[in-house]
Amino acid sequence: MTPPPGRSSGLCPPSSPYPPPLPPPCRSRRRLLPPPPPPRRSLRRRATMSGRNPPRGRERKRGKSGNNHHAASVEDTVLMTPVPRFPDKTDDTPEAKICLSRVYKAEKVELSDDRLSAGSTKGYRMVRATRGVQEGAWYFEIKVVRLGETGHTRLGWTTEKGDLQAPVGYDGNSFGYRDIDGTKIHKALREKYGEEGYTEGDVIGFYINIPDGASYAPKPPHLIWYKGQRYVYSVDGKDDPPKVVPGSEISFFKNGVCQGVAFTDLFGGRYYPAASMYTLPNQPNCEVRFNFGPDFEYFPQDFGCRQIPCPMSEVPYHGFDGKVEGPAENGFSEKTS
User: Fold this and answer.
1) Where is this region: Disordered (predicted)?
2) Residue spans of beta strands (DSSP E) within 106-158
3) Is position 91 within any domain?
4) Residue 3 lies in a domain
5) Confidence class of residue 42 from pLDDT cuts 50, 70 and 90?
6) How far is 106 from 208, CA to CA, in rounded Å?
């Protein structure tokens, strides 16, 4: 059958040396999607400065294609450690006298109206004084007012980093003296110290000497405001190692009698009087009372070769000397360089 004029049968005549033409390709309705975005960098302990203007004088490295998604460098990565309690938060004033802090204490610790006595039930909890020292020789007393049948105490010194939800001597930031056997404790390690422990009615003296301690004290923290939280900011991601103060020591006295040198080679920093108490539930509070001087009940008559200390009552007010960088509208200082 012969096709009508103008139409082709679609078949090549037997004499044609060429194959039949291919049908036109079908147009796909699927759209080509853009490539997925690059994976986000982890923010577990390091926070990047993406989304913010990079520091002046520093630019991000770019890849061969000109994109900087996968070209993170050391310059745009910093270490930001959140700290729940900051040195700019205090209840001390220049007009006030040294006493126990209502800010730097565990919630379970109860203070007297004059903020010189402290008590606690259940687990060990800590309270520290409003003022600390970083240089010189200093002294204060604590009288054990009540232990009861189940009460115990750990008394001594703590730095700003001491854990308030733990007893004195729990970590490397505090140094304690226990009522049980009179042992000393640091980093949760107990060591034999003194001849015997102490009990209700005993007065414990606390001596610290930090010669030229200001030269070994750590630098004030660099604080910033980031996403609603204050952080300690470090560009290189490393903390300055602590420095040992030569000739530094902590000694304890019981009713005016020295029990020996307890700790030496202290790290530079600010040290605060501290106490932690323990009592089983449904028992009266274990209670201690601080005496920062100058009138002591058992001031030692002989310090041997030690430097004669000053009473903690003479420690001057130490305000917060740093700044928290952040949005100016929130009351913080903007970083401009």
Assistant:
1) 1-92
2) 110-111, 117-120, 122-129, 136-146, 152-158
3) no
4) no
5) very low
6) 24
Q: How far is CA 283 from CA 107, 151, 199, 204, in A?
A: 18, 9, 17, 24
Q: State how far the Cα of 198 lies from the Cα of 182, in Å rounded to an integer.
A: 6
Amino acid at 4: P
Alpha-carbon distance of 308 to 302, in angstroms, equals 9
pLDDT tier at 48, thresholds 50, 70, 90:
very low
118 located within any domain:
yes
Q: What is the CATH number of the domain that holds 288?
A: 2.60.120.920
Q: How far is CA 228 from CA 53, 78, 82, 232, in A?
A: 18, 17, 11, 14
The β-bridge partners of 291 are 141
Place of tokens 């040198």: 261
Per-residue pLDDT tens digits for 163-200: 999 999 999 999 999 999 999 999 999 999 988 999 99
Separation CA 226–CA 332 (nearest Å) = 11
Q: Is the pLDDT of residue 76 over 70?
A: no
Q: Which two tokens stand for residue 85?
A: 């309690």
Whether the pLDDT of residue 78 is over 70: the answer is no
Range of the domain at 269: 100-330
Report whether pLDDT(238) > 70. no
- What's residue 141's pLDDT? 99
Taking all residues of the chain, what is their mean pLDDT, rounded to a whole number? Answer: 80
SS3 category, 328: helix
Residue 32 is assigned to a structural domain of this protein: no
CA-CA-CA-CA torsion for 46, 51, 52, 58, nearest 10 degrees? 70
Which helix (H) or strand (E) element contains residue 224?
A: strand 223-226
Domains identified in the chain, total number: 1
